[in-house]
Design brief:
The strands form 3 sheets. Strands 6-5-4-3-2-1-7-8 form an 8-stranded mixed sheet, sandwiched between helices. Strands 13, 14, 15, 16, 17 and 18 form a 6-stranded antiparallel sheet that branches. A 4-stranded antiparallel sheet has the order 9-12-10-11, with helices on one face. The two termini are 19 Å apart. Helices cover 31% and strands 29% of the residues. The relative contact order is 0.14. The chain is globular, with a radius of gyration of 20 Å. It folds into 3 domains: 102 residues, Rossmann fold, CATH 3.40.50; 142 residues, D-amino Acid Aminotransferase, Chain A, domain 1; 63 residues, ATP-grasp fold, A domain (Dna Ligase, domain 1, 2-Layer Sandwich), CATH 3.30.1490.20. By secondary structure, it is an alpha+beta fold.
Length: 325
């Protein structure tokens, strides 16, 4: 008997449109011979199942079911394609876990930790994972520009502590640019990180559960036409994403080892992507993406294909791992 799979997409953050694209890619590629597929839009104003005719059916938030033609539909598994809040930060996953609904992501606690850049870096530091020097701020804190520059140096990056798709991120070159960049980041989050600039090759490493094993995918080198890997570079073609990356054997071994160590240390599961910058041969960890983009322009699907894994196999493996938990 086919399993009912709810593909949740949308969310409450600036990444809502990207999430809808990701969710539709999952919907188009999961095996309909094995699963009944349901697109579920989780939005500020409504939770609805959207059928093939674009008719909306309300979701009962009490038990996460829907009624179609008089029949109550329960879901065997949720495929999480929500970037940002409430999918990537673990909020909605805590809800599913309370209801006993299986899902494709890591447990809600791990999702909450990895979504918080500061907490992730703090968690990993004792395990020898290298990262850039950083300064953390809450909204309302006094801004001591001279202290920050002395600690971090210039240029530097200012970014929301919780967020994705490069919304709210600035590269700061001068003292004059720092406060506007901080204000921009605070528009996305009430917590921000200011990090030193690392001058080196940037790479992204997909780590997934595939056929009941942790698998590190081929590495992608990121060459942005812009100052950094911002929204335009990620989604509007303003970058080269080269898979496999043009790195040495030593760099490849080091970054794969670091990526797998992070995945295991944080006790993660599901589909993920870790970003690094090389300082000589050493990979410096930037951040972990636990609901990475899976649009047709996204890095991880291209890495999977380079590894000989079709999107149907990639998404199907995630669903089967969730069903077997």
């Amino acid at each position: 008997m086919k399993k009912n799979i709810a593909i949740i997409m949308g969310g409450y953050s600036s990444e809502v449109e990207i999430s809808l694209q990701s969710g539709n890619v999952v919907y188009q590629n999961l095996d309909r011979g094995k699963y009944n597929l349901f697109r579920v839009h989780i939005l500020n104003e409504k939770w609805v199942y959207v059928d093939e005719n674009e008719t909306e059916h309300p979701i009962n938030v009490g038990d996460f079911t829907t009624i179609v033609n008089g029949y109550k539909i329960k879901f065997d598994c949720v495929f999480n394609a929500i970037h940002g809040h409430p999918g990537e930060d673990g909020t909605i996953l805590a809800y599913f876990e309370m209801l006993g609904v299986k899902h494709t992501s890591a447990p809600f606690y791990q999702m909450a930790v990895t979504f918080n850049k500061r907490d992730t870096l703090s968690f990993l530091k004792p395990y020898g994972i290298k990262s850039a020097i950083s300064h953390y701020m809450n909204k309302g804190d006094k801004i001591d520009v001279d202290f920050i520059i002395k600690k971090i140096g210039l240029p530097c990056f200012v970014k929301p502590n919780k967020g994705g798709s490069s919304f709210g991120i600035s590269k700061v070159h001068t003292k004059k640019e720092l406060i506007p960049a901080i204000e921009k980041a605070f528009e996305e989050d009430n917590e921000i990180l200011i990090e030193e600039f690392l001058d080196g090759i940037e790479v992204s490493v997909g780590i997934i559960q595939y056929q009941n094993k942790i698998k590190v995918l081929p590495i992608t080198e990121i060459v942005s036409e812009n100052e950094f890997f911002d929204f335009e570079a990620k989604y509007l073609g303003k970058s080269q994403e080269i898979t496999p990356a043009r790195i040495s054997v030593k760099q490849e071994i080091n970054v794969k080892k670091a990526a797998e160590k992070i995945y295991k240390t944080l006790n993660l599961s599901g589909i993920s992507r870790a970003d690094f910058i090389f300082v000589k041969d050493e990979p410096y960890f930037i951040e972990m993406n636990m609901v990475p983009g899976i649009t047709t322009e996204s890095i991880l699907p291209k890495q999977a294909i380079a590894a000989g894994i079709s999107l149907q196999e990639l998404f199907g493996s995630a669903v089967e791992a969730a069903l077997n938990k």
